[in-house]
Amino acid sequence: MREATGRWGGVLKREIVESGAPVVIVAPTVTMDPEHPRAEAFAMHAGRLLAVGELDAVRAAVPQGTREVTLDGVVLPGLIDAHMHMQRGGLKALDQFPEGTDVDSYMERMLQTPHDPEWRDGEPTMEDRVEGLRRVQPLLHALGFTGVIDPAVTIDEMRGYQETKRRGALTMRTVAMPYPEIGTPEVPTVDEAITYLTGIGASTGFGDDVLRIGPIKVYYDGEGMKGEALLERPWRDGDDFTGVQRVPTEDFQRLVDFCADNGWGVGVHAVGGKAVAEASAAFARAAERASIDDLRFQLIHAYLEPSEESIRTATAAGVIASLQPSIAWNNLEGLIGRLGDRALGLNPVRSWIDAGARVAFGSDGPFFPFDPRLIVWHSMTRLARGVDAPASPEQAISLQEALAAYTVDAAWASMAEDRRGMLRAGMLADFTVIDVDPATCTAEDFRDATVLRTVVGGETVFQAPGA
Ligand SMILES: [Zn+2]
After folding, report:
1. CATH fold of the domain at 79-413
2. Where are the chain's structural domains?
3. Strand partners, 174
4. 331 C-alpha to center of ligand 1: Å?
5. CB 61, CB 389: distance < 8 Å
6. With a threshold of 0.85, does the pTM exceed it?
7. Alpha-carbon distance 413 to 432, whole Å?
8. What CATH class does 4-77+423-463 carry?
9. Separation of 106 CA from ligand 1 center, angstroms?
C-alpha cells in the first residue's frame, strides 16, 4: 500500500493518486448525465474528467500506455448534502468522540444526542475549528459525500472554513451560507442585516470550487418539532395558534429585494405551509423584476403542509426546494402526536418533483441523520422511525430521482452544475463507488450498500478497509 500526500494535504491510501499523468478508471458508471446515463469507464487528469463513456472511446481519448485502474463496485457522482452543518458537526466530533471513531458510531451517538451542545467548554478556537473539520470530513467522505452546503455560517465559522482551506485541509467542497441572525442584539432587524451583508464586500457565488459563498440564510418561521412552524390552519383544533413568524412579511420582502438587487441569494427556513406560501410569494415578486436563477434562492425544509399553489409559485420563480427527508424520517412519529393524520403528508417530495422543481436533498446533519443511504431508502418507501405504515406513499420517489436530488440538483444549489453532480468530460473528478447498482437494486439494497471509495478532484479521500 502506497501512501502519498495529496494536493489538499490529506494522506491518501493508495493509487488513483495522480502523478501528473492521466489515469483511466474502469468500472460501471452511473453518470447522471441525461445524454449518456451509463458509462464503462472514464479518464481523469489534474482533477478533472477527460472522457466518460465506452471503454474503447475512453482509451482513444488518452495517450497510449495510460494507466488503467479497474474498480469493484459502481461509480456515482460524488454526493452533495445540500444542508449540512459540517463545522458544528466537526466541533462535536472533536469535543465528544475519540480520534478514530468510525462513521457508524459517530452517526449512532449523534442520533442519540442531537441536542447536546457541539462544544461544552467556552468558545472553540481556530485550532479547534480546523481540527474539528479534519475529524469530521473523513466521516462524511465515508458516506460518499464530496460536497456540502453549510446552511448557516457565522463569521467565526467562515473564518474556520477559510483557515482550513488555507492549510490545504478542506477536502469537502463547501458552499457556506452567511447567517446574519436577525433578532439578536448585533442584528436586531432587517436593516442591520442589510448593513451586515453590504459590509462583506462579496456576495453569493464568490469563491472557488473548494469554498464558495452561498445564498444567505434567514428564518421565516419556527421549528416543526417545537410546534412553531407557521401553518395556514391552527396547530390544534380549538385554538388559533398557527405558529411563529420570525420576520415581518414586509421586512422579509425588503430583505429579499435588497438581496436580489445586490447579488445575494436567499435561503429561507420556511417549515410550515403559510411560511412557504409567503416566502414563495416574496421570491416570486423579486423574480418578476429580474431572474433570480443565478442566485440560487432556496426554500429550506418546507415540509409541513406546503400548498400545491406555493409549490407552483416557487417552482415558476426558479426557487430550489432544499428538502431534508431525514427530518421526516426522524420526526414523523412526534408530529403525528401533535397533528394527527395531518402529519402524514409531510415532506411531499413527489409533488415538488412533479411540479418541475429542482429538489436538492440534505440532512440538517449532524443534528438529524445524514446517512444518504437511509435518506434515499426513506424517500422511496416513506417509512419513518417508529411508524409502521408508509406515510402518504403517493409521495414516494424513485432511486434515480433521489440520486438526482443528491447530485445534479444539489450541484445546481451549489452553483456548480457545470462542474459537479454529473460525470461528463470537463467536469470535476468527484465520485464515489458503492457495491450495488442503482439501476437494478431495491430500496433495501441501497440502504444496506457499502461505500467503497470516495474521490474528490481525482484524489481518494476515503477507501473502505479491504477495498
Ligand atoms: Zn439546519
Report:
1. TIM Barrel (3.20.20)
2. 4-77+423-463, 79-413
3. 148, 211
4. 14
5. no
6. yes
7. 20
8. mainly beta
9. 18
